[in-house]
């Protein structure tokens, strides 16, 4: 069964404890400084490195047309860790 392609700009994840949401596309492009302002928390040096590595992987999972690598996203969606808006 084929699913419609998920667009990274339409899939949102919660950020921090405030419940703010950000799209995967924005998350893949946001700077560390902007992310810290968005969450209201300062990140340690190690967390910044992990964040940048996770961003790089996320960018790899987003196809040039803005759709997501569906196999990886289906795995995340089945766990309930990512929500789709749209």
Kindly provide the radius of gyration, computed on alpha-carbon positions and rounded to a whole number of angstroms.
Answer: 13 Å
- The percentage of residues in β strands lies in 5-15%
* Cα separation of the termini: 21 Å
Q: Biggest sheet, open or closed, and with what strands and sense?
A: 3 strands, antiparallel
| H/E element order | EEHHHHE
Annotation field: number of helices: 4
Shape: globular
| SSE-based structural type | alpha+beta
Q: Helical percent range?
A: 40-55%
Lateral arrangement of strands in the main beta sheet: 2-1-3
- Unreliable residue stretches: none
SS elements, strand count? 3
Summarize the entry for a quick read:
With 86 residues, this protein is an alpha+beta fold.
Detailed description of the structure:
By secondary structure, the chain is α+β, with helices and mostly antiparallel strands. The protein is 48% helix and 13% strand. It has a three-stranded antiparallel beta sheet with strand order 2-1-3. The radius of gyration is 13 Å and the shape is globular.
List keywords for this structure.
86 residues
Topology diagram in text:
Elements: E1 11-15, E2 20-23, H1 24-29, H2 32-39, H3 45-61, H4 70-79, E3 83-84
Antiparallel strand pairs: 1-2, 1-3
